[in-house]
Amino acid sequence: MQLVEKIVKGERAAIAKAITLVESSRENDKKESRRLISELLNKPGKSIRIGFSGPPGVGKSTFIESFGRYLVEKNYKLGILAIDPSSQITGGSILGDKTRMIEISKNPNTFIRSTPSRGSLGGISLGTREASIILDAAGYDFIFIETVGVGQSETMATNLVDIFSLIVGPGSGDELQGIKKGITEYADIFIVNKNDGDLKSEASKTASDYKSAISYYKKSSDVADKEVLLVSAIEQTGMEKVIETIQNIVSQNKKNKNFDERRAKQFTYWIEEEVREIIQFSIQNKIKEDGSISKFSQRVLDGEIQMFDAIEAITQNLQNK
Amino acid sequence: MKIKNSENYIKWQKSFERETKIDLSEASSETDEGIKIKPVYTKADIENLSFVDNDSLPGQLPYTRGPKASMYTNRPWTIRQYAGFSTAEESNEFYKKNLKSGQKGLSVAFDLPTHRGYDSDDDLVMGDVGKAGVAIDTVEDMKILFNDIPLDEMSVSMTMNGAVLPVLSSFVVAGEEQNVNKNLLSGTIQNDILKEFMVRNTYIYPPDPSMKIVADIIEFTSKEMPKFNSISISGYHMQEAGADNVLELAYTLADGMEYVRAALSKGLDIDDFAPRLSFFFAIGTDFFMEIAKLRAARTLWYKIMKDFGAKDERSMILRTHCQTSGVSLTEKDPYNNIIRTSYEALSAILGGTQSLHTNSFDEAIALPTDESARIARNTQLILQNETGVTNTIDPLAGSYFIESLTDELSKKAWEIIEEIESLGGMTKAVKAGVPKLKIEESATKKQAKVDSGSRVVVGVNKFKNPKEPKVDVRVIDNNRVREDQIKKINDIKASRDQKAVDESLAKLVAAAKEDSNLLACSIDAIKNRATVGEVSKALEQVYGRHFATSLSVSGVYGKHFEGNKDYMNVAKKVNTFEEENGRRPRVLIVKMGQDGHDRGAKIVATSFADMGFDVDMGPLFQSPKDVAKDAIENDVHAIGVSTLAAGHKTLVPELMKSLKKIDPNSKIVVFVGGVIPEQDYDFLYENNISAIFGPGSNIIESAETVIDLISDKIHKNN
User: Fold this and answer.
1) B635 vs A62: CB contact, 8 Å cut-off?
2) Cβ of A90 and B609 within 8 Å?
């Protein structure tokens, strides 16, 4: 397949077209997408996939711009997948990530792709996992996956990335109580941004709040410890520490096999998801062809039959098909 | 109350309702500002006003009726036409011609690279040199600009905000080298950086250091240049970007308050600098509203400055320049613009402006020609000499309607000013992006009203001219201008004392680090023949260059079209497209070069998204190469280039080249929108541009054209 070669060679247009393919909702494209991905899985790269999440207003994009700049200056190749919300009313979207990644978007060592969420559950858009496989095969060293808000943390951490980091602002320690349960559990790194100017002391206080919150987690030799880092995206400070921490966590987790186990679990989950999707699709088609739902519900409405009896009859019917 | 129950009023109401068949309570219309305009006003409407004092006279507090007791009866307003043409030589010719034909003051338009602190030889500004104004790279250009124009006699206004330091310095040095001491220089420098962050985007540094520069200039001029206005606090560009009159009024005054605070923080006494603060408003087509706006502005500024503790009367008086609205001009049936401009000019005069620029009718398309500039100037000469409007001061005073409207505008603006103050003042509000978003919302609403036909624009969405007249416009050879400028820069760099330049630039950097006054150091560097770009870059080392992040409104446009057939039709096409192609039509909207006017781009982006498109927004000031990378990585179906500063002839072919370079098989549809003279259409089509949308294009129709073009291209490829 020609496309595969072009991707592996790192051709920008080919990578872009391939991402379009894996994001497509058209049935034909889906089949082609599966073929493409299975070929690419035979050509794995060396990417580390890092998830970034955080509440609005903490300077997430500014941090990514700043950290990304640090990485490309060190000659790393960086792929960014940014997911923006689609409007629930019109279905359209405004994809404005590049307006906040001005410097790195110009750099030849980056590939930045925005994707509308298209109302998919969990806010992780369809095809994000596949897109990261494409970028991996194309030779990107780091793949950032950025989502809006923190609602998708669990999905992202368990399904998509090797390291999940939460970006927070100074003073967010108070909210910690509320979000602690879910997010602190999934996050590997907590990045406290805006450690600059007047906010410096507030930022350090927030960092120590997080530190004490994560101290409740049992230290274990199986998994690298969670880390809390202070950075300033505007002043570009603390970036070295971030990459150092990422590399540490990766090497520790590789040593204790957690890295591979996590990827293996994600793989199993992926298979489950695909199976579920295929079954769901065929069931939907069956339901459409069968027509027994509308037939039976009319009978329920007419009082001829009990509702739960109708449901059982319909299910029986479909299973026998 | 009394009047409403009077026999006369009841009788009138009955007649009104009989004639119109409309209940009086339903007969009001609502303005963009959300003000209800009633069919009739009475004495009751001017009782118990909050801000306006019915007994005050011209030149008396709260100055509603005018800053001076005699106003135009003593001396009419100054006809001050804003102009700048590519090179200093051409502009100088133009100024001298105008001064001979009765113009009293000069107003200089600079090109975008100068605004953004780049020299003409910088690669980043390839397409922008000499477009939209004059290129100034060194003091030598400034000297040519004012050749044979005595700077001790002529008041000069300069529209400069980003690169204020090197440009004002060049002006001072040009004066010195004409043997005019700086304390004799008169005129105004715009120096209003806050509104740049809101709308015009020709800033260089982040908000905080930018405010420091403003304060430095106020400090320096208040001590050394007593006849020079240190700042022109401008609402003009807000209205141009789509702000309604309340927003324009409120944000301009809130900006003014922030500048006053910045100057006070330098330890200046308020009465030492406040008399030299001047204002600049836009005058649009809402005739009475614009009159009321100028009256309200003076009324509110008086209150603001009194609260600041000003003692000198001159500190509390708002003096303003006005310009007729550029955004009200249409490309379609362009001679209508002469008429629009005339009414706008009359509004400005009835509102009591101190000076006025009237636009040329062809400015929706290009820089004015000699002929169109003459008509624009004569519009004012006729008002001054033939109509009698100068004989009576504030002739609309006492009008129930005007006084009530003045008061209502004041009240509404005051609420917004208080809102900004509660955010901690305008610098903070600007950093948070609040005003920018409000203005964009207002702009989108206005556009939706025109596109849906609920607002009539003659010759555009109604009463169209079946035979569009052809208009000759000024053509600029941008490459020649750039080459000439580069040669001049090279000559100066070869002949100057490089050591002196380096030392003076190092001093400037040190001053920035120490937080001492930058204008004095900048004047030294310019005197040594440092370039505008070198001075700006030196400060960039300390302050960095500012890149604005941008927020977008959504849903505002679509709301005006619920049930609209054309709109629904496009939305349906988008859905069908998605079913057929597995994704929505995806369009990248960009600005290229140094042109920061992003109102059009923003409106197109939000309205396309409302119609169901996926819209990528590029950052401002992108190079064609950056745009191509962005477009290809996101695999967009189309790129829409918004251009308002005449850079399209260089930048668009460059974009097409860059696209082919990354992807020789690129099938991306490219369309262009904005200010493009008809002569350039063929050139663009030859460069494979698929569609061109001029000013006044209906966005729904444009969206439909775009989706059809995309579909065609996809089908052709299959």
Assistant:
1) no
2) yes
Q: Please state, in angstroms and rounded to a whole number, the distance separating the CA atoms of residues A75 and B59.
A: 67
- For residue A25, the chain B residue with the least C-alpha distance is B582
Which of A87, A93, A98 comes nearest B619 by C-beta?
A98
Window 4-23 of A: residues touching B by CB (8 A cutoff) are 12-13, 15-17, 19-20, 23
Could you tell me the pTM of the whole model?
Answer: 0.86
pLDDT band at A123, cuts 50/70/90?
Answer: very low
Q: Which of B250, B244, B214, B241 is nearest to B230 (CA)?
A: B214
**How close A90 gets to chain B, by Cα (Å)?**
5
The ipTM of this complex is 0.90
Average pLDDT, whole number, for chain B?
A: 93
Residues A216, A44 contacting (CB under 8 angstroms): no
Task: Please report the beta strands in B177-261, taking only residues with DSSP state E, as ranges in sequence order.
Answer: 187-189, 228-229, 231-234
Q: A158 falls in which pLDDT band (50, 70, 90)? A: confident
Closest to A140 measured CA to CA, from A4, A8, A302, A276? A8
Element (H, E) at A13: helix A12-23
User: Is there a contact between B430 and B197 (Cβ–Cβ < 8 Å)?
Assistant: yes
Extract the tokens encoding B417: 């000013």
Asked if the Cβ–Cβ distance from B547 to A86 is below 8 Å, we say no
Burial (0-12, 13-18, 19+ Cβ within 10 Å), B41: middle
**Is pLDDT above 70 for A58?**
yes
> Which amino acid makes up residue B309?
G
Average pLDDT over residues B108-127: 92
Residues 6+ apart with CB under 8 A from A252: A224, A258
- Residue pLDDT, tens place only, B513-565: 998 999 999 999 999 999 999 999 999 999 988 887 666 777 788 888 888 89
Q: Give the pLDDT confidence of B48-100 residue by residue, as tens digits.
A: 999 999 999 999 999 999 999 999 999 999 998 887 677 899 899 988 988 88
Complete edge-to-edge strand list for the sheet that includes strand B78-79: B78-79, B355-357, B320-324, B277-283, B231-234
Are B584 and A92 in contact (CB < 8 Å)? yes
Q: Do B549 and A94 touch (CB under 8 A)?
A: no
Cβ atoms of B319 and B67 within 8 Å: the answer is yes
Mean pLDDT computed over A13-17? 97
Distance CA B159, CA B132 (A): 12
CA distance B356 to chain A (A): 37
Q: Which of A98, A112, A130, A199 to mutate to test the interface with B (most CBs of B within 10 A)?
A: A98
DSSP-derived secondary structure for B354-371: SEEE---TTTTTSSPPHH
Q: How far is CA A247 from CA A79, A178, A192, in A?
A: 17, 30, 19
- List of E strands, chain A: 48-53, 78-84, 93-95, 110-116, 142-146, 163-168, 189-192, 227-230
